[in-house]
Fold:
Amino acid sequence: MSNPVADSWRRMRAAAWARSLEFLRDKSAVGWNVVFPIFLVLGLAYIFSGPGQPMFKVGVLSPIGIVLDATLHPFFGTPQVQFYREDQRGPALHKVQLQRIDMLIDLRAVPGRYWVNDQSPKGKLLEQLLHGAGGEPLQRQATTGAQVRYVDWVAPGVLAMSMMFSCLFGIGYVIVRYRKSSYLKRLNATPLRAFEFLLAQLASRLLLIVFVNAVVFAACRLLLHLRMEGSYSALISLTVLAAFAMIAMGLVVSARISSEELAGGILNVIATPMMVICGVFFSIDGAPRALQIVAQLLPLTHLISGARAIMLDGAGLQQIAPNLLALAVMSLFYLVLGATLFKWRQD
Amino acid sequence: MPCVLEARALVKHYPRVRAVDGVSFEVQQGSCFGLLGPNGAGKSTTIEMLEGLLKPTSGQVLFRAAPLGSHYRERVGIQFQSTALQERLTTRENLRFFSSLYPRSRTLAELIALCRLEEFLDRDSSKLSGGQRQRLLLAIALINEPEVLFLDEPTTGLDPQARRNFWDLVQGIKAQGKTIVLTTHYMEEAYLLCDAIVIVDHGKIIARGSPAALLAEHFDDSVLELPLVEASKLNDGVSCKQKGDVVEIHTPDINGAIARLLAAGASLTHLRIRQRTLEDLFLELTGRELRA
Structure:
């Protein structure tokens, strides 16, 4: 007498094994999935960790002849910040508005003043550095975030973005190819159920992505000395759930179509806005309300904000519970939708 | 022989196309049943309804006198006309994978021997020749010891030698008492393998019976094939049909026809005599060449 649960588990395991073997033997795909994130890490390391490279630019309106150093104000002794003299307030302020510089300080006024762009994450970080530096004229509040570097802020976003591409395209293209070549039709002639097949594809991809990203994260920690205040278990839980949600999103896209070109187009339509509005490179705090609502409906937003909370603020599972809950709901929704829409064969 | 599979008034409509139009037949246990017809006749649509992969617009498929149940797929084996396999897996790994999908399966050793897979067991399945690939797909179709084996145009695209090798395999499987449902547009294949056939055209059955009985029912003559120049010397009103540079003379009296050709001074150097085939039958029934 066969056991339906055991039978189902055996079929899923077999399908996940077959897919994993196929992927691991595809040298170019493995190479791309490992090499791309490593290039990303090296790129980040080069951009943000080069010796003497300023990470922040600050314009200073000061009387002529005064040297901009720590004796004038402790903030001017901050490493990795380039201070330079500006002559006119109007054009300099415009540069702040365009985020071409991160801060403008006016020492000609009494008391001294500074401007930052509220929509610029670098400006906010600099503000924290300014507060942390001390010094009479500009001191307004104590800060605990004085050591946060931009690379610590941006790295979770960049790694999450790389993961998103791997989740969406890695699963979407494969299933579309299977359908186009009638391999799905062949599988449909076996007792394998659609739900089992989809879960097997998901599990295979999930294991791979979590493993690759663990390696990339370790490399980032090593090369960039990334800040990690929270627990690794919380970060892994968040990563697994987010990868699950994003792979399930890819399943929805690939549920019916048989054209790789169409799949690529749709996946790009999904991935590109996510890259822009989910806070990978820029904070979305100052973005229009409607955009922020849309961003909350996308898994990448919750991955990035959760990862930043864990890595920068030391948040635990309890603090990121809203992100985890949102990701769990999205995972379930996309998985059920993908399985419902799924078709084994071409129309 | 008991009926194992029955098609009852099967109809399948697609937008603007009536692919299958009221097809009924029975498949007997242990027989090889053939669905014959040209491309687009509705063979593949019919067989997919029998396989349980395609829902009929109307009509019913019965397996052992009951509608197809949830475990039907565990009891039948299917070889599709064209299908891909998981890439970068060897023949052995593909067999293992598919056998894991069934609650019970034949041993790999049995399948390897039955379908002659020894020589390419550890070869990537994407690097197999057409014949090897079809043998692997046949093994996969047999993996669950199916009660009915469906073969949808299994030798299309194979070279003549690979086709003959495949026929040998199917005859071996047939000898074990397996019920086989086969679609083909190769009349020779149907004649050699099938115990009963239906000829399908435009979604309808136009003839049914055993190949020999069908030929006997429609023809009582043989065919003499001669080059046009030689056949033109004969002008006594025998039934002739020109096919390019060759003329077919249809006659129940071969000796008499040859005597008349010799009397007319025709050279018989390139004479070919053949029996009527299912291809002739299709032409007779539809007025069209089967592979047109």
